[in-house]
Amino acid sequence: MNRTMTALGTSISRRQLVGGMMAAAVAAPIVASRTRGVAFAEASEIKDGTYTASAQAMNDLLEVSVTITDGKIADVTVSPNSETPGIGGQLLDKTGTVADSIGKAPVDLLPELIVANNSLAVDMVTGATITSAVLISLVEDCIKQAGGDPANFQDAVEYPAYGDGDADMIVVVAGSLWQRTHTSKMAMGTGMISTYATALVDLADKITLYNEATATDLVLEDGKVVGVVATDNHNGNSFTISCADGGEKIEGLYAAGEVTGGIHGANRLGGNAVVDTVVFGKLAADSLVADMA
Predict the structure, then answer these.
(1) What is the pLDDT of residues 68-80, one digit of tens each?
(2) In sequence order, which residues have a C-beta less than 8 Å from that of residue 121 and are 6 or more positions away?
(3) Which of 90, 191, 243, 270 could lock 182 by a disulfide, CB 3.0 to 4.6 Å apart?
């Protein structure tokens, strides 16, 4: 059986690698619900046309253009921006190509969901809540400019549901390591973020990134971990990813910091992450030296 090590997470099968189940509160439940209504917009209440609004987001001004056609949201376009790559903004690989094969950035995903559902009641993306909230508020602003009422665009949004599956390896990732190794001022192609993006593209057919789910429990069998129970952040349903050969030591794999799960729960401040890195980095290094002796 092939053994591939990665902290990433698009199909689920015995011979494939499953990555990602972001731990809750640290970076993983990628979703926080907004209040949903049930009313539909009436064409007579809103004027067709294209409207633009902008506001301060996480790193810079975010500008959104909204096209209303026949009283419905026909298009939402976000202008080029400086939102953090791989968090609120687009993730680019070393060639400058958008890495969205197993997950789209909020600046791309939220506009698609808003248009597809003609609704503002989309779930915000945890870790990018500022970007998400500002983007949604700008669409609301554009609707008001058109003479419409945002309250009429609150129909419930449907999301694909996760189901049970199995894999060669399950990696539960906590934290957003690339966010700490890259800023919006760094040129793409530098730092860990572009390496991460390139890996997502190269491994897209071998991994599944459960970035909208929260790992909630472990499945044990004879003292070994043979699966992970997770909760779908959109609908609250539980599902299980099984790994029959779980619990085995992976030779040559060492880890430190938030990627190991962390010990601080909902507190994801950088200061705590630094302590994790220093303490567990030393422990990992000690283990490495001992194994090499």
Answers:
(1) 999 999 999 999 9
(2) 34, 35, 36, 37, 153, 154, 155, 156, 157
(3) 191
